[in-house]
Design a protein that fits this description.
384 residues, alpha/beta, 9 helices, 13 strands, 19% strand, disordered C terminus
Length: 384
């Protein structure tokens, strides 16, 4: 490893003899020192040369130590400053610390007192430099993420526009062929039906992927969300999905929560639709929605069904993108709905998990922040 250069100290004291003595003493302890009896001359040198530390006398005729400290910090923000003072001006030295000095040392000097102060000052400077470097890296990373997000938005638009157009053609023409009297055999009609179904599934997959992408970028607008009312509206919207089905809903009291109404609507629409879908094979589907627990900091909401359930050893896969525990021949889907649920809830600061048994139904849990009267609206930043 290359040897580190000695720390550079700018020493300012209008008592020239004392300033030179301190310069010489510290040079013997591996410090590079430059001394001035004039504060203005020291500032001029600071503009030309970088220093790690500034040791300044407090009481000087041309410019006092506090004024020098403030001027020096403007020229070199990372500079660490130490005030030198006599016994009678300690109170003023404390004021200097309030103005930005790290510490003070008393005259007449004792080397055993000066060296620990300098070591601590150098440690503080190193920490400041590392923090500044970290802040720059964060800014650079933020700029990179913003650029990546813009590219992702452009890609999303391309997907939604460029891929949907040929899918519309496939759907439209296969439907026309199926409906036309073109002398197709039953097997050929079946093939056309499979093409149409696959195209529609792909279109749904594109929609779900775009939703998943948007949910990671959209800014969350948090306000009071009436879950009771939200669930009622979701059930009304899902009526077409539940036609010709016997479904018994048990809706327990739900507390208001703090969240984004639009995004939470997606969460509970997915969970309720999930329960409706996977209880399809029951003569009477039973779906229960309620509050499992409410504390000062967290509300736990559950959606329970009596459907096909799943093996708990696969529970970790449930909330992953494209992860499905049942094939399309049993239950349709793209494997993105629950991934959306987890992402949205996580962006609200909550958790998601599920409990189930094979053929005995499943229960999905989400936690959210409770809304209390007087809770101020909050804005959550973009990203996960």
């Amino acid at each position: 490893m290359p040897e580190m250069p000695p720390p550079k100290i700018l020493i300012v004291d209008d008592e020239t003899a004392q300033m030179k003595a301190l310069c010489n003493t510290l040079q013997d302890h591996n410090y590079k020192t430059v001394g001035f009896s004039s504060a203005k001359a020291a500032l001029a040198e600071l503009e030309k040369t970088g220093f790690d530390l500034l040791l300044s006398d407090l009481m000087m005729p041309e410019m006092n130590g506090i004024e020098l400290l403030q001027a020096a910090k403007k020229k070199s923000p990372d500079l660490v400053c130490i005030i030198m003072t006599g016994e009678g001006t300690i109170a003023t030295a404390v004021e200097a610390m309030k103005s930005g000095a790290l510490d003070y040392i008393l005259k007449p000097f004792k080397l055993s007192a000066i060296l620990p102060v300098l070591e601590r000052a150098l440690s503080v400077r190193q920490l400041r430099l590392e923090n500044a470097a970290l802040a720059r890296r964060v800014e650079e990373r933020t700029a990179e993420l913003e650029a990546a997000n813009k590219e992702l938005e452009a890609f999303s638009y391309s997907v939604s526009h460029d891929l949907r157009a040929p899918l519309r053609h496939i759907n439209g023409f296969t439907d026309l062929l199926i409906q036309s009297d073109s002398g197709f055999s039953e097997q050929n009609k079946r093939y056309l039906g499979l093409i149409s179904t696959s195209a529609k599934q792909m279109n749904q997959l594109i929609d779900d992927l775009l939703d998943f992408s948007r949910n990671s970028r959209v800014e969350i607008q948090q306000t009071r969300v009436d879950l009771q009312d939200l669930i009622e509206k979701i059930l009304q919207d899902l009526q077409p999905e539940m036609s010709n089905r016997k479904i018994v809903f048990e809706k327990n009291a739900l507390p208001p929560v703090l969240g984004d109404p639009s995004l939470l609507r997606q969460v509970f629409s997915n969970l309720v639709l999930n329960a409706v879908k996977y209880s399809r094979k029951r003569d009477v589907a039973k779906i229960e929605i309620g509050c499992a627990e409410k504390t000062k900091n967290e509300v736990t909401i559950y959606v329970r069904d009596n459907g096909v359930g799943f093996d708990m050893k696969y529970a970790d896969k449930l909330f992953g993108v494209f992860q499905r525990l049942h094939g399309n021949d049993e239950f349709e889907g793209t494997g993105i709905g629950l991934a959306n649920v987890r992402r949205i809830v996580a962006r609200h600061g909550g958790r998601t998990w599920a409990e189930a048994r094979v053929n005995e139904g499943a229960t999905f849990f989400v936690t959210l922040k409770p809304y209390e009267s007087g809770t101020p609206p909050a804005r959550a930043s973009e990203g996960t």
